[in-house]
Each structure stands twice: as C-alpha cells, then as structure tokens.
C-alpha cells in the first residue's frame, strides 16, 4: 500500500502483512523542526550510514552500544558511556543505529545500575556526532515503546530488521 505520514514526522508504510516501518527516520521528531538545537545539527544528520542494517547482526561483536532506559542514557562523567557489545547477551533486542568511520553502533533499551542522564543534561559535554547518535537512539527506542501494537488489528507487534520495522505477530 501507499505511504502515510504520522504526527511527529515519522514516515511509515503499512502493507498487507501489517508491517510498520520507518522508511526515512526524522531526527527532528522529539524537538521539532526549526528549533535552534535541531537546526544547529542538521548538517550532521547524514553522518551515520544505515545502509548495512540488513546485515547488522554480523557487526554486533565489534559494535559499541548506547544503553537507554526510561529516557535516560547510561553515562559516565556527564558523557555517553559507549559499552562494548560483548558485555551484553547477543540474543537481546537491539537496534542498529549505523556505522561511522568504520565503527558500528547499536542501542538497547535495558535497565542499568550505573549513572543515567537525559540528553538535555549531558548535551553540553557531547560532540555533534554523539548528540546525533543519541537523538537517533532515543527517538528509535521511544518509537518502539509507543508503537507496541498493530495499527490495523491491535495485536502485539515484534521488532524486526534490527529495530527499523515492527511486524504484527498474528499475520
């Protein structure tokens, strides 16, 4: 079927198989187009290459992970704490963020016992790239938390395509 635009800027595609996908992820969704923070970083939004997402599983062993829980980012010394993927179970639900300069990045939505901060709290200490990837991780995880059921039939959906598609469990 055709494309539709949901409130907030996410582009979705619904098809016979009750799939919902983000065809083009819009980083400005959480803040809003035209806000000073987004406008300042718009040139950096294409720095992350997601073209390898279909083979993302192959990159898990060498990836860095952003851990997020309840809107907070695992941090250390007021900066994002990028964790080596080997510290996590390979079977957990993970979201492929992309690759930058040969380094692959994933996000996970899992409780942590260390320090956590909101992006608003730590953004003054981050590079443009770190802000960009953190915004992407937060937006993707928030999308998954708020779209747990099929828009057509109301049944639960599951994460596929390394976090970029949710698929109805019934169909």
Percent strand? 25-35%
Q: Structural class from helices and strands?
A: alpha+beta
Computed Rg: 16 Å
Amino- and carboxy-terminal Cα gap: 16 Å
User: What is the molecular shape?
Assistant: globular
The poorly predicted ranges are: 1-39
Main beta sheet strand tally, sense and closure: 7 strands, mixed
H and E order:
EEEHEEEEEEEHHEE
Number of separate strands: 12
Mean pLDDT over the full residue set: 77
Count of DSSP helices? 3
Helical proportion, percent range: 10-25%
How does this structure look, described?
It is a single chain. The protein has 3 helices and 12 strands. The protein is of the alpha+beta class and 171 residues long. Strands 4, 5, 6, 7, 8, 9 and 10 form a 7-stranded mixed β-sheet that branches. A hairpin with a 2-residue loop joins strand 5 and strand 6.
Keywords:
171 residues; alpha+beta; 12 strands; 27% strand
Brief description of this entry?
With 171 residues, the chain is α+β, with helices and mostly antiparallel strands.
Map the helices and strands.
Elements: E1 3-5, E2 11-13, E3 19-21, H1 36-41, E4 64-69, E5 72-76, E6 79-80, E7 83-84, E8 95-100, E9 103-109, E10 116-117, H2 119-122, H3 128-146, E11 157-160, E12 165-168
Parallel strand pairs: 4-9
Antiparallel strand pairs: 1-2, 3-12, 4-5, 4-7, 5-6, 5-10, 8-9, 11-12
């Amino acid at each position: 079927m055709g494309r539709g635009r949901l409130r907030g800027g996410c582009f979705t595609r619904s098809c016979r198989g009750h799939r919902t996908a983000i065809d083009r992820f819009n980083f400005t969704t959480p803040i809003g187009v035209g806000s000073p923070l987004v406008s300042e970083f718009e040139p950096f939004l294409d720095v992350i290459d997601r073209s390898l997402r279909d083979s993302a599983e192959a990159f898990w062993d060498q990836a860095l992970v952003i851990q997020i829980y309840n809107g907070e980012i695992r941090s250390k010394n007021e900066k994002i704490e990028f964790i080596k993927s080997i510290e996590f179970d390979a079977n957990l639900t993970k979201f492929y963020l992309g690759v930058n300069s040969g380094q692959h990045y994933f996000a996970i939505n899992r409780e942590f016992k260390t320090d956590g901060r909101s992006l608003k709290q730590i953004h003054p200490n981050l590079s443009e790239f770190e802000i960009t990837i953190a915004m992407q991780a937060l937006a993707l995880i928030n999308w998954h938390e708020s779209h747990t059921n099929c828009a057509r039939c109301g049944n639960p959906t599951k994460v596929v395509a390394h976090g970029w598609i949710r698929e109805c469990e019934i169909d």
